[in-house]
Write a structure and sequence with these properties.
CATH architecture of the largest domain: 3-Layer(aba) Sandwich
Strand content: 5-15%
Bound molecules: ligand 0PR
CATH superfamily of the largest domain: Type I PLP-dependent aspartate aminotransferase-like (Major domain)
CATH topology of the largest domain: Aspartate Aminotransferase, domain 2
CATH class of the largest domain: Alpha Beta
Shape: globular
Distance between the termini: 43 Å
Number of strands: 13
Helix content: 25-40%
Order of helices and strands: HHEHEHEHEHEEEHEEHHEEHEEH
Radius of gyration: 20 Å
Number of helices: 11
Strand order of the largest sheet: 1-7-6-5-4-2-3
Largest sheet: 7 strands, mixed
Structural class: alpha/beta
């Protein structure tokens, strides 16, 4: 049987994946059969991974990118899990908790279950951002980690990261920032989110989302090596002595794709994409508001709006790939493959379906 064509991105408004940059596609193919999990054997990809960490640390405004540690994970799920694991391992108590806003990605729920830590989720405010008073009330001496999200999955909101850092550190806990999706957009906004802006200990930033790398390519970064040391296990029969990653064998494609994409696009290519996405999100929000929809004002470029079940289903039947928030709003995620032209076509279909 012939291999079928993959899904086209033409009508995909729901995804946080996008077309990889051509240079990333090419680099990924060349490194498909390499394993950065065995740096003693696959030296070229191991060197590339060091470069990837330095580049990601530059994007995340680490004060000294060559001193940041981290690795290219399978995605945001693995990076978040490893951040929780590292904080748990570094805390003196055996039974620890993690405090996060309820807007946190579901990967943190998985992490808490796998690692058997108590996850305390606290409400968000009227603007879907972490409620600081609720976070403050939830932390205690057994809190190992406070999580803030810089670009929430449902509404693209950025939590007050510096304040979360202060609360975490006052309680003797660490701060993890999940910028899995937002990390390549935030440098071009005035949000505080980065290693430079706040006392961030660990950070998730995924090349395979807005970084235009290839899948699988997530990013875990740590301000200092202690966070990675807390993850290391001994690897007696490999040339390298220890391994801090969760997966053993990993894809060299993700590493090479990340480096190629970031070197091609940082900073101007990402700036252009971020500015275009922001302008398109504002434009779409305005068009929907003019048509009488209830729209959640976009911050980072995700537009959520109230829609009936029947309209949602009709749009899906027309081939539009839309998803919904927990509250039932439709979400449009303005990834690089989403153009003004495709949004006009979407509105044309929406107008036809409504009448
Ligand atoms: N953190 C945040 C803030 C995220 O939005 C996501 C994924 C993750 C962590 C987990 O990342 P991985 O999926 O790379 O492990 N957010 C999207 C979501 O759950 C992922 C996604 C991607 C969904 C592509 C659909 C899709 O087609 O909605």
């Amino acid at each position: 049987m012939q291999t079928p064509e993959p899904q086209s991105f033409d009508r995909v408004l729901s995804s946080m994946c996008t077309e990889p940059h051509p240079a990333a596609r090419d680099a990924a193919e060349r490194f498909l059969a390499t394993n950065p999990g065995d740096p003693g054997t696959y030296e070229a990809v191991a060197d590339l991974e060091e470069r990837a960490v330095g580049l990601l640390a530059t994007v995340a405004e680490h004060p000294s990118p060559t001193e940041a540690s981290g690795y290219v994970a399978g995605g945001g799920t693995e990076a978040n899990l490893q951040a929780v694991r590292s904080a748990r391992n570094r805390h003196p108590d055996a039974d620890v908790n993690v405090v996060a806003p309820e807007s946190v990605h579901f990967s943190v729920y998985k992490a808490a279950e796998v690692l058997d830590v108590d996850l305390r989720t606290v409400p968000t405010d009227d603007d879907h951002r972490a409620d600081l008073a609720a976070v403050e009330a939830a932390v205690d001496e057994a809190t190992a980690l406070v999580v803030g999200v810089a670009g929430t999955t449902e509404y693209g909101r950025v939590d007050p990261i510096p304040e979360l850092g202060r609360i975490a550190h006052d309680a003797g806990a660490l701060l993890h920032v999940d910028a899995a999706w937002g990390g390549f957009l935030l440098p071009f906004t005035d949000h505080d989110w980065s290693f430079a802006d706040a006392p961030v200990d660990t950070l998730t930033i995924d090349p395979h989302k807005c970084g235009r790398g290839v899948v699988p390519g997530g990013g875990l970064l740590a301000r200092d090596p202690a966070a990675m040391d807390a993850l290391a296990v001994e690897t007696p029969y490999l040339e390298s002595r220890s391994q801090a990653t969760l997966n053993g064998t990993r894809s060299g494609a993700g590493v090479a794709g990340a480096v190629a994409a970031i070197e091609a696009l940082w900073p101007d290519g990402y700036r252009e994409a971020a500015e275009r996405a922001a302008a398109d999100a504002d434009w779409l929000a305005g068009e929907l508001t003019d048509r009488g929809y209830d729209v959640v004002e976009p911050d980072l470029p995700i537009v959520a709006f109230d829609i009936s079940d029947s309209t949602f289903e009709a749009l899906r039947a027309d081939g539009w790939r839309l998803s919904r928030t927990g509250a039932g709003e439709a979400r449009v995620v303005h990834m690089p493959h989403v153009t003004r032209e495709s949004l006009r076509a979407f509105l044309t279909d929406l107008d036809r379906i409504r009448t």
